[in-house]
Amino acid sequence: MSDIKFSALNLVPIREGQTDKDAINDMVTLAQKLDELDYERYWIAEHHNAPNLVSSATSLLIQHTLEHTHNIKVGSGGIMLPNHAPLVVAEQFGTLETIYPNRVDLGLGRAPGTDMMTASALRRDQHNGVYAFPEEVEQLQTYFGPGNKQAYVRAYPAVEKNVPLYILGSSTDSAHLAARKGLPYVFAGHFAPQQMKEAIEIYHDLFEPSEALDKPYMIVCLNAIVTETDKEAEYLASSLAQVFISIARGRMQPVQPPTDDLKGLLTPREYEMAKQRFDDSLIGSEETVKAKLEAFLEEYGDIDEIMVVSYIYDQDRQFESYERFKRVIQKLNK
Fold first, then answer.
1. How far apart are CA 103 and CA 177, in angstroms?
2. What residue stretches are annotated with the Luciferase-like domain (predicted)?
3. Contacts of 32 (CB under 8 A, 6+ apart)
4. Is the pTM value of this prediction over 0.90?
5. pLDDT in tens, 127-161
6. Where do the structural domains in the chain lie, given as residue ranges?
7. What does each C-alpha distance from 303 to 193, 238, 251 come to in angstroms?
8. For residue 126, what are the contacts with CB-CB under 8 A and spacing of at least 6?
9. What is the CATH number assigned to the segment(s) 5-333?
10. pLDDT tens across 55-88, in order?
């Protein structure tokens, strides 16, 4: 197994007591920290009609982050393609690649990233958009490709920019597509781990080499909170639990401070749901997380990159978690 790379995803959440601008400032500060720590990439999600997230205008946030960092690759985790005309996406990311060469990633998802009423307000036919996802990925490949393979409509300045495309998925459907097109595949294990094993196996088994890749490239995204002790990590993870439960309740509240009384805040069923999510996450000391990662890799096979998302209320503790996670990966790679 080759060395595993490490990267990060950010949904740009608002912490309790913050403004939208505070959340965007925190997004940039975290990117700068991860740039210093030599993280491979920093991806920003796309969500709409979510009062606790500031990640609706993803390409603008990517540009803002690129402007304030130096080396780290910045991209979309992802652009929800049913919401956007491929031509516009190509123009935007071709422009980003022109300004910040070799630092732009384009992760692509087939879901709208919101509820269906909001999806309709985004002014594209969501039903057709989901089904047209494979064809629209091909359109993007053409727009970013060589000039002699272009049609009349071209996405200037995207032509010949070859912005790397990544297929995102939370089920087995996208695994088939990524394998067939020979593109890197990113599985959303941080919120939908149920079909992860099957999707990874499908991607590896059916992968067809392409101009983009001669062999599979598999990224898995997981929740991670790494601290000095297991007890401390579990305490900080109470913020993560509150995020999940607020979504389940349909409230979508800002990230809450950690609590010692998680059982008192949740119903017994919600508490069990939270504990299950903890089991699927990398929560604990460096030693505990290293052991969890080793078990994960033993079960899921050939993973090239672990992308982590960390809902931690205190930003300094979040920095510390990402620093400790880097050390875990370095120990794993020795």
1. 25
2. 17-300
3. 68, 69
4. yes
5. 566 678 999 999 999 999 998 888 899 999 999 99
6. 5-333
7. 15, 28, 35
8. 82, 112, 116, 119, 120
9. 3.20.20.30
10. 999 999 999 999 999 999 999 999 999 899 999 9
